[in-house]
Amino acid sequence: MHHMKKYFTEGLIQFTILLSLIGVRVDVDSYFSGYFSPLIETDGGPSSAFIQTPFHHYRDTAAGHQVHPKCPELDYFFTSRRLLNEVRALGSPARFPTRVSAWLVHLVPDDGSDAGEPLDLSGDPDDEEIDADNHREEDDHTTGEGFGLSVSQDCTVSRPSCAAGELSKEETLLNRVNEEEEVVKEERGREDTSPASLNQLTQSSALEQEDLLGSSSLPPPLSGLELPPRWQDFLSEFDDFDSMVPQRMSDLEAELPNPISYDVSLQDAMVSRGDSANGRPASSRTPLFHLESTNSSHSDPSQSSAGALPSSLFCLSGNSSRNNTSPSQMGGYLDEAVFEHINMLDLGNLDTIDPQMLDGMEGDMDTPWLEDSDSGLSLESSSRSPASPSASSDSFCDDEGGATGYSSEVESLSSKGGACAAAYRDWSPVNLVEYIWHDHTYSTPQAQNSTSSSWFTAIKQEVMSEDEAEPEEMSRDERRVQALGLPFSAFQIVNMPVENFLELMDSQNLSGSEVMLLRDIRRRGKNKLAAQNCRKRKLDTILTLQGEVEGLSVQRDALLRQRSHTAKALSAAAERFETLSRTVLGQLRDEYGHPLNPEHYTLHCSANGRVMVQPRTNTASRTMTGRKTVRNTHGSIGVALFTCRRECTKNTGRCV
DNA sequence: GGGCGCTGTCATCTG
DNA sequence: CTCAGATGACAGCGC
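Predict the joint structure of the above. Result:
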């Protein structure tokens, strides 16, 4: 168990270091809790802030500092200290860096000794040596007792003890940790109203942990207590942990100088996590963290550097297949957002991506590499897509703006001849037609990135017009363009990028009037499409509003029917009450023994069960609706002749 | 011939 | 300031 803790902790440390070196900190506890989003701490400068984790707040308060968790100075301080400790730990594998591995909660012996003291990892950096020594001492001290639970501030993990007798305690602790997570969830809304013990356990510093775990507040061990499913899944990952650790450690030592290649598409890794079921033998358990380098992506996973992580919890596979039919068990606890954030970081070195991997990706992907899942973005890539036959050789849109390549082509033009037309052929809308079928937006067509049904319609019409070109169907602007002798159509002038349009006018030696004409043609063409979109949008809005009106009309009719039914029911109840009142009043007698006249008196039932006989006033209505009853009550204060309870007897007719 | 719908165009505003 | 887009208003055209 000592080795297990050692390897496990070191694995977490090294993985955390690797993430920290690229500016990312992952709060694994967030995944285990299944509630919080993962903590991503990026090196965003002094203004960077911790997000979505309460432990930073606890960490801040643990050291006795009431500092706002988003304090930039605090952020910088903790980040620097953490990185320093991580680097130190990297050079000394035998040590347990306090800051990274966080505190470790040991089982408290029954004799109440101090062996189970949690480690104060939130202390000052000066205490690091002492803490490390404490780690070692406690490791030695607790080896024979069994290491029951390891709770990390940054990575909450647990491992059941090998000793069967202590399993119940561990389960209790595990459940306490689970409850602690639940409390943290609840506490986000109301921090000061949660149960004290769990809150203290969650928020406590190491000293508080000691008190809690060593005191009687710890619930007694429960036998037969079931672990939550996610903990069971998690613990099942360690079945063959001891056999896996030596190999991983040897691999780690061998590949430590170059542990991880950054030539990995983390986006791809995010999508393809958990593919181990397909590529691994059944005997090889899926690691929880698996950071697989690109260079070793085609090799045996066990030989990968990521596999060197003793307790690999992630699965960062660079070339994993996408048919994830059986994702890793712990993979479900990982939020994809962490990979999103990792991807958002500029890892650089993208130009060093293994060509083999790129080939594999091209082979795996049916869609173009740059094509976005959203159909709206496919136009840009399609306009310069290698799939386009005409674009495969020319470089019209090879740059990001899509203009540089064209400009170089245009600058080489010496006349309004076929060379210029050839240069513009690449962004011809004909090439775009086959890539924008799926677009349904209203955006105005633009050769760069706009996608629109009207754009498609216009292109389609353009293509059809090219096929069925008849002079009399040409628009006025089209004829004007042809009169200028330009090798472009009005449609092309309208839809080409503005950079290209400006360069076109500069390169064609046009006069002022011709420039104005081209500008007008372009403006009118764009406005025409905009008007079409606007009208279609307006029509859709009208249709939508009509649908809403119909729905509201139906709802109004239903409410009217309901009101009618309610009024009828109320009327019937009032009638029954009136009948009952007459019956009751007929049984009562006044102080002279005369029966009460229902014409002059009425019954009033209060909410507390009291039934009062009240004289009818002139304004009182026999129907005794709610409002009139209230007025009647107020108007008969002190006039009630009798106060009757349910004990009124029929025999005497008098109130008890 | 007038009404209506569609379309193109202009002017203006906004981002 | 320029550009693109949105939109109201107007005019032309066909039914």
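Chain A has 25 helices and five strands.
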